[in-house]
Specification:
Length: about 290
């Protein structure tokens, strides 16, 4: 995989349109012949996407329009899962500087701060409304630790506060430029810092839901990427990270991976684009049988 803008150019240059998915998605779905990643290509700039996602907070939960709140029970259970996953690896979690990148309404940080007693926590969140909501949710959090910026533009705020553990949950798939996001977080982490990433586990695993509601009702630029284990792992390896732990994503609904900054050269394993196409076609067939 190449990096940054070259990554976007590479996948667009080598894309194959999966026409059989047009009836399921408002935006066209493609697979890259070189790395097997599944994506929409109606990208908008990071700034535009940030503004669009900021509007979602005002709309709150609206299933018909495809929006949801981080405060619903499903998301809360996901947050606890991620923290418990970290606790299996870090026995002294309370002593760590932890930053939730794309913190949303602060549900994960609320658990860390109030339940798990992690007091040295930070939030990076682009929405002013979410930052205000987060501050009201956790009144004792230091105001300076809530950074109202996009992830890519938050690096300068951490010059004196390098982070032990970064958390990026169900966010990277919504970013126009995921390589830039990962690069920025890497600069903020300590030399031996860790990054936990969580995404939905749907691609190249046993079918867990009907494809009819997989792509949602919104346009692709709001959710341009669909990661498999290989595609997500490759993205992190290409940016100087090493995989340290993973959950049972084959059988579980979510893909949770823990990475460490590393100078080791690791081999990447890409999904064959032909295998991805076959998987998606089989998923369509499966969905017909359960509809």
């Amino acid at each position: 995989m190449s990096t940054n803008i070259n990554f976007i150019k590479e996948i667009k240059k080598n894309k194959i349109h999966l026409k059989f998915l047009d009836k399921f998605s408002k935006s066209k779905v493609f697979v890259c012949k070189k790395n097997g990643i599944l994506f929409h290509d109606d990208f908008k700039s990071s700034e535009e996407v940030v503004k669009l996602w900021s509007k979602n907070f005002k709309k709150k939960t609206n299933i018909k329009k495809g929006f949801y709140s981080g405060n619903n029970p499903g998301m809360k259970s996901r947050h606890v899962y991620c923290i418990e996953f970290l606790k299996q690896y870090f026995h002294n979690l309370k002593q760590k500087k932890i930053c939730d990148f794309g913190a949303g309404e602060g549900g994960l940080l609320e658990f860390l701060f109030n339940i798990y007693k992690c007091k040295n926590v930070f939030a990076v969140e682009h929405s002013k409304e979410n930052c205000s909501y987060l501050k009201n949710l956790i009144p004792k959090i230091k105001t300076k630790n809530i950074i109202n910026k996009s992830i890519e533009n938050s690096v300068d705020k951490f010059k004196k506060q390098k982070i032990d553990i970064g958390i990026l949950t169900w966010t990277l798939c919504n970013c126009s430029e995921p390589f830039e996001v990962i690069k920025s977080i890497k600069k903020i982490l300590k030399p031996n810092g860790y990054l936990l990433i969580a995404e939905s586990s749907r691609i190249m695993v046993p079918f867990k839901k009907s494809i009819n509601n997989f792509f949602g009702s919104g346009k692709g630029y709001m959710h341009p990427w669909f990661f498999s284990f290989n595609s997500l792992n490759n993205m992190l390896i290409s940016n100087g990270f090493e995989l340290m732990a993973k959950n049972d994503y084959i059988n579980e609904n979510d893909l949770v991976l823990l990475f460490k900054k590393s100078k080791k050269k690791k081999k990447v394993k890409v999904d064959s684009y032909k295998d991805v196409i076959k998987f998606m076609k089989d998923w369509v067939k499966y969905s017909k049988s359960v509809s």
